[in-house]
Amino acid sequence: MASPSAHAAIIDGKAFAAGLVTRITTAAARLRASHGLTPGLAVVIVGDDPASQIYVRNKGERTSAAGMRSDTHRLEETTTQADLLALIASLNADSGIHGILVQLPLPPHIDASAVLDAIDPDKDVDGFHVVNAGRLAVGLPGLVPCTPLGSVMLLKDTLGDLSGLHAVIVGRSNIVGKPMAQLLLAESCTVTVAHSRTRDLPTLCRTADILVAAVGRPEMIRGDWIKPGATIIDVGINRVPSADPVKAAEGRTRVVGDVALAEASEVAAHITPVPGGVGPMTIACLLANTYTAACRSAGIEPETLDA
Ligand SMILES: Nc1nc(=O)c2c([nH]1)NC[C@@H]1CN(c3ccc(C(=O)N[C@@H](CCC(=O)O)C(=O)O)cc3)C=[N+]21
Ligand SMILES: [Mg+2]
User: Fold this and answer.
1) Where in the numbering of this chain does the Tetrahydrofolate dehydrogenase/cyclohydrolase NAD(P)-binding domain appear (predicted)?
2) ipTM above 0.85, yes or no
């Protein structure tokens, strides 16, 4: 199998996410028919960063397309922390809103962790609240961050049972690296979390059966860092100049991951592409968390969303 021309199977996150969204849409329609309950998501964005505006519009459209209520709150860059906290308090109190997402990054004059921790943990569909981080760490039901949740769904769909596999996670953020470590521990992986101070990162990565790249450095992880037959989850979404110098000179860009995809594909057994891998799963899991939060708010057991 491991011939020099061996080529990894691409993990089609876009297709898996589309299937998941279909299952969520069906489950949400049944929730409305049986209990008169329509899941509602509020997205809050502060300032007018163009990339953030695109993500937020996308989230709103996807939420509506899944038959859920979608409210977007666009606030000025100069909004005070007190005004933002007041909006969150009103969303916490709104019984028609089951999920609240505050788009990150926030402007520098706002303390992001104070804002995230003001969200009702049971409406925290990003899973960023300290209570949800704690629930995940001790194995209590809660809301799990969307990118790690979607990544583990792809891993289980690709590999089945993950128990005993060595997972190396490169990146220790509260948003991806740390919750990913908790989820993979819960799947009985042996988990190593690496970061910028890790010594001899290539050698460590070569011991990984599952390699998760979440560092935000374009194509940092090279083909010779990868164990033959490994499964690679590339969480990076990095905008870099177009590969075509003429287009690059015109300011055109392309999106690449944290893994050098072409090189890695020669060594790995399975790999998520960028785009079309983890990113679409993040949005699908946001809808899944909104559906789950709506069910729990009414004491209803959510339907399984498994494939
Ligand atoms: N509170 C909060 N929660 C978030 O989940 C959050 C956030 N703030 N701030 C910004 C980041 C970014 N993010 C993405 C989600 C999906 C794609 C996605 O679907 N990307 C596509 C297209 C990539 C492209 O071409 O640009 C893909 O990977 O295939 C990208 C980025 C969620 N974020
Ligand atoms: Mg992707």
Assistant:
1) 145-296
2) yes
